[in-house]
Each structure stands twice: as C-alpha cells, then as structure tokens.
Amino acid sequence: MKYNKNNTKRSKLLDTRVMWTVRILVVFIIALMVIAFIMPWWKLSAHHIIAGKAGEVYIHSYGLRDTLIEGREWLKYDETPLYQTTLAWVFLFSSSVIIVLSTLLQGIRGPMLLGTVGFVYIMYGIITQIRLITRLNQLEIPLQGEIEIFYVDYQVPTTIVTNLLPYYSLVFVGGGLAIVLAVAWMAIIARKKYIGISS
Q1: Cα separations (Å) of 164 from 125, 139, 144, 176?
Q2: Does the structure show a pLDDT above 50 at 199?
Q3: Contact 68, 75 (CB under 8 A)
Q4: What is the assigned CATH class of domain 2-194?
Q5: Which helix (H) or strand (E) holds 157?
Q6: Number of Cβ within a 10 Å radius of residue 32
Q7: In the chain, which end has fewer C-beta atoms inside a 10 angstrom radius, N or C?
Q8: Domain ranges of the chain
C-alpha cells in the first residue's frame, strides 16, 4: 500500500512537471508563430537609375504590402483583398487558441492536436511560397537575385533586388517545434502507460 501511495505521488509530480514544461514551450511556439506571421517573408526593392529608390514590395503571411512609386501597374492583380487578410489573421488566432486548448486535454488528444497545428502551419508557409514562386515566374522575377527592367513608356532601367527574408524560416522553426513537442509528449504518455503508471 505504501508503495502504491509513493507511486501515485511520483506520477502526479511527473504529470505536473511535464505539463508545465509543455505549457512553457507552447508559449514559446505561439510567440514564434506570431513573429513569423507579422514580419515580412519576402522583399522586392526597386531602384530607379534617375529617381533613386522607387519603392519596395513585401510579402507577409497575410498578403502583399508595397511602397512603390512607379510600376504599381504590375501589382494591380496581386493586391491582397481584405477578406484574405482577415482570413489569415483568423487562421493565426485559431491556431494559437487550439494550441493552448491542447494543453488542457487529457491523454493523447492534446499532443495530437498540437502536432496537427504545427503541420498545418508549415503547410501554410510552403503553399504561400509556392504561390509566390509561381507568380514571380510569370513576371520573370527571381525569388532571390537581381535583375534590370525597363518601363514601356520610357526606356530607363530600374534595378530589382529580391530576397527571401529570415523571418520565413520561423514558420518551420515554430511549426517544427510544435511537432517535435507533440511527439515527445506522446512518447511520455506511452511510456507511462507501458510501465503501468496511469496518465
């Protein structure tokens, strides 16, 4: 009987430590996801040979933003509608809420939910990049690099420099960490069941 009481105490202590570790890491994961979401993933800089800097184009997770002075006709079909931007922010909010809720679920449901959100977030980043590359190929602009273009109205070259920004990598760091945490969490639950300690 004494052994069973000690066993139960150790089980509760382990549960408490595991869940607090999970919750701390979940807060870190959400922070990474939010930072990745609000910061730009890709940048285009235009430099006019006469007028100087002609503006910039940024691709965020929620859409396109630009400060172009000239050449905005290029973007008339690429400007992000308000409803798409709204849906993107709803996705971020929903993902954050679901991750928090995953820490309140019993058994294997919590880590499965956490891992699913991490996978979906990574796929969101991949699909966004595929759409960007497809559109850039149509415009004959590289994902990363430098080219010169000429406006139709006047043959004055404009230098275009494009870069995939470091914040894009946070999509894979945040989503990947969620998946790794989910797998580790499930392994702990499975081990406890295997050695006969009820979760």
Answers
A1: 12, 17, 6, 19
A2: no
A3: yes
A4: mainly alpha
A5: strand 157-164
A6: 20
A7: N
A8: 2-194
